[in-house]
Amino acid sequence: MAPSPHSIPAPPGSGLDGSLRLPSGDLLIGGEWVAAASGARRDQLDPSTARTLASVAMGGPRDIDAAIAAASEASVAWRAWPASRRRDVLLEVARLIDEHDHELAVLRSLETGAPMKRKRGQSLAAEWTRYYAGWVDKIEGTTAAPYGAPALSYTVPEPYGVIAVLTPWNGGMVSAAMKVVPALAAGNTVVLKPSELAALGPLRFAELCLQAGLPPGVLNVVTGGPDAGEALVGDPRIGKISFTGGGATARRIVEASARTLTPVVLELGGKSAQLVFPDADLDVAAMTAVQASLANISGQGCVLPTRLLVHHEVYDRVAAAVTTAAAALRIGRPFDDGVAMGPVIDAANCERILGVIDRARSSDAGVLLTGGERLGGALADGYFVAPTVFGEVDPHSDLAQQEVFGPVLAMMRFGDEAEAVELANSTPYGLGGLVYTRDIDRAHRVAHRLRSGYIGINAFPHMPPNATLSGAKQSGYGREGGRE
Ligand code: NAD
């Protein structure tokens, strides 16, 4: 029999009184929480201690089949629901996310290791949900003027049917809200496959959706590994695929979608550049680099500016400030007092990141300014990698070109604006970028020349739901956010 949701004692320092509710870790299919057909489960670990946090069902092709059948059946009634009713259910989901804000922030920190002070992620999920609830009754078609024959032509936007949503481990509830809610708002039903590395946030999101009154089968969640994902994206009953994750997985998904000609939206990785011009507020620029690329979820974010390009006149000053601030970051478990940076997600990623650092050192890709090792002592049990900064990085090296997805910052010099833009555009990715300058002409001119989905000027972009997001080059295609 499948386990029920249960409570664990609230982690000390989390600010929660009493206990924390954990989802059962089961699959949600047709409104029921069920075990995987194979009975398989996987221990989800706390990345800061490597201790088991929860046991999560490992769904496979049979579970995906059942979930798609449930979503297809529910689709008929859901698309016919009055817009006002659909809107109200989604508004209730947003209200419940807000009501549980603190608890959800604790859950996120527990399963990702991100320091507890980073609560904003959860309210972002509520914001996206509320924003798309607002669209439900504003989706309109068009009427065309008579053209030749005296016939009336008009368009009616129709749902795709069942949407396959695949999310990465670092997105948690925010990724789920960003992808699931717009699909539901437009009258689709969903099969969500969260990452097996951190499934509790998406499962808790699904619990809140049911509590808000979402009918059975409208949202189904199948936790599992690549085989569950492959079964989902290869099924001809899927109307559209919405994927956020890495490029290698994306290529396999596109191959599968080619067989059924299913449309796909891809939000992939990045190697975003932060460009610092000599007139910028250099202290702010240095702090942004350290906070955004290293401390923030230990550098494991798609849009984080993991390349720091600095004008040669101010390079040494910025390098010194970044190195000092990175070395001073307080690293620890997410609920420890004053902690600024947590662990990376698991043992495999910890090894992979240390391997990237070793190869960068042995190939002289750059000069190691700080970090470069796994932390021991009191943190030896968890997957802690020291915040790592390389200076004078060779722009052609892997370190400069490839996403690390860990706390590793690559610094480079540029001589003038043209070189800065060329360097920034020189990787296969095009997700985000930051421009630091007080010259408003230059800020917009440079932003316009960067081949990237979204650019921040003197600040890190905060992903408002009403702005369209899209990667360029190998950072993905299709659009999310806003009306799109
Ligand atoms: P991943 O590609 O390993 O996994 C993403 C999802 O795909 C998971 O649910 C996984 O189980 C599933 N999957 C794995 N193999 C599959 C297959 N063969 N067929 C179908 N599904 C499969 O990514 P990850 O390690 O969870 O996340 C890190 C990556 O995600 C990074 O590259 C990061 O940049 C990217 N990311 C992008 C965005 C964005 O909005 N652009 C946001 C967050 C993360």
Could you explain how this protein is built, in words?
With 484 residues, the protein is α/β, with parallel strands linked by helices. 37% of the residues lie in helices and 19% in strands. The protein has helices at 61-80, 83-99, 101-112, 120-133, 172-185, 200-211, 226-233, 247-260, 282-295, 315-328, 347-362, 398-401, 417-424, 440-449, and strands spanning 6-9, 19-22, 27-29, 32-34, 41-46, 51-57, 143-144, 153-154, 162-166, 189-193, 219-221, 238-244, 264-267, 273-276, 307-311, 367-370, 388-391, 408-414, 429-430, 432-436, 454-457, 472-473, 476-477. The strands form seven sheets. The chain has a seven-stranded mixed beta sheet, sandwiched between helices. Helix 3 crosses helix 4 (120-133). The longest helix has 20 residues, at 61-80. The radius of gyration is 23 Å and the shape is globular. The two termini are 42 Å apart.
Instruction: Determine Rg (CA atoms, Å).
Output: 23 Å
Q: Between the first and last Cα atoms, what is the distance in angstroms?
A: 42 Å
- Biggest β-sheet strands, sense, barrel: 7 strands, mixed
The number of helical segments is 14
In short:
Helix content is 37%, strand content 19%.
Task: For the structure shown, list the relevant keywords.
14 helices, 484 residues, globular, binds nicotinamide-adenine-dinucleotide
Secondary-structure map:
Blueprint: E1 6-9, E2 19-22, E3 27-29, E4 32-34, E5 41-46, E6 51-57, H1 61-80, H2 83-99, H3 101-112, H4 120-133, E7 143-144, E8 153-154, E9 162-166, H5 172-185, E10 189-193, H6 200-211, E11 219-221, H7 226-233, E12 238-244, H8 247-260, E13 264-267, E14 273-276, H9 282-295, E15 307-311, H10 315-328, H11 347-362, E16 367-370, E17 388-391, H12 398-401, E18 408-414, H13 417-424, E19 429-430, E20 432-436, H14 440-449, E21 454-457, E22 472-473, E23 476-477
Parallel strand pairs: 9-10, 9-12, 10-11, 12-13, 14-15, 14-20, 15-18, 17-18, 20-21
Antiparallel strand pairs: 1-2, 3-4, 5-6, 7-8, 13-23, 16-17, 19-22
Helix pairs in contact: 1-7, 2-4, 2-6, 3-4, 4-5, 5-6, 9-10
